[in-house]
């Protein structure tokens, strides 16, 4: 059964189930981690079918729809962040590292490798660490007598970090045979450091990837057909859209976080690249 200790996070644990009903939280879920402790079967995700086995891990983002079809008795744990969790309207969440968690999930939302399969891990230890933490969170969260918010909070932080790190590993692995892996490494580095503009200057990137200052931009453009500067701005604006859609952050707060001079600078850049103002974009979300 689901319980709510952290406001707008739901954790569900199922033991030896052979039937799973449709997820009632789909329409209000922002992000979900689904771990299959044991059992086997199929999971239909957005109309496509993949298999799951013991120790399979899946992640889901807004608008993903899935249903589990068990072939053998299945035990699983689901951790669901509801959309309202990242809207700062509830005092119960004020002591949590909500913004840090959102940043980790942003990395996953903007990856092409989060869906439609059992998640892959760079090392077996990363998978085992994640599994241990998921079990720990579920045990603490569902215990009505002794739940410890400190354990839950810190375990969730590490879980999100592990998933974001391994999503990057998947991206790097998949591109090795189709394009330069160094390009994907540069892209991953940009994504990981998007809130640290001093690390994304041409000079800093050139030093990080052992290239000449005057060559890295040319190299990036050659392999992506987009200039380095334009790629960074486009990625920042993707994050702006995500924050406008799923949080209550003010334009000025978003501008400050992403390295724009002020909300006016952000609005001008957004309109130049997206063709609409921030206010028009927000109105379209209503």
UniProtKB/TrEMBL annotation:
Pfam families: AraC_binding, HTH_18. SMART domains: HTH_ARAC. Residues 57-206 form the BAH domain. InterPro entries: AraC-bd (IPR003313), BAH_dom (IPR001025), Homeodomain-like_sf (IPR009057), HTH-like (IPR037923), HTH_AraC (IPR018060). This is Helix-turn-helix domain-containing protein. Residues 184-284 form the HTH araC/xylS-type domain. One of its GO terms (molecular function) is sequence-specific DNA binding. It comes from Seonamhaeicola algicola. Keywords: DNA-binding, Transcription, Transcription regulation. The keyword Methyltransferase does not apply.
């Amino acid at each position: 059964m689901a319980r709510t200790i952290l406001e707008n996070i739901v954790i569900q644990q199922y033991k030896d189930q052979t039937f799973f009903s449709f997820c009632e939280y789909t329409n209000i879920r922002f992000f979900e981690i689904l771990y299959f402790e044991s059992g086997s079967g199929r999971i239909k995700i957005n109309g496509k079918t993949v298999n799951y086995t013991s120790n399979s891990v899946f992640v889901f983002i807004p608008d993903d729809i899935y249903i589990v079809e068990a072939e053998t008795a299945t035990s699983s744990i689901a951790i669901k962040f509801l959309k309202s969790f990242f809207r700062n309207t509830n005092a119960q969440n004020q002591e949590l590292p909500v913004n840090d968690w959102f940043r980790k999930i942003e990395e996953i939302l903007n990856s092409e490798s989060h869906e439609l399969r059992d998640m892959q891990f760079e090392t077996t230890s990363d998978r085992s660490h994640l599994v241990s933490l998921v079990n720990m969170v579920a045990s603490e969260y569902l215990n009505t007598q002794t739940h410890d918010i400190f354990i839950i909070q810190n375990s969730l932080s590490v879980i999100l970090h592990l998933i974001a790190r391994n999503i990057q590993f998947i991206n790097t692995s998949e591109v090795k045979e189709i394009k330069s892996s160094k390009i994907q490494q540069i892209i991953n580095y940009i994504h990981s450091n998007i809130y640290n503009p001093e690390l994304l200057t041409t000079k800093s990137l050139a030093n990080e990837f052992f290239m000449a200052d005057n060559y890295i931009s040319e190299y990036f453009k050659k392999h992506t057909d987009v200039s380095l500067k334009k790629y960074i701005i486009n990625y920042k604006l993707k994050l702006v859209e995500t924050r406008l859609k799923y949080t209550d952050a003010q334009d000025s707060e978003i501008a400050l976080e992403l390295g724009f001079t002020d909300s006016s600078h952000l609005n001008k850049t957004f309109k130049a690249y997206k063709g609409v103002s921030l206010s028009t974009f927000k109105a379209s979300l209503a």
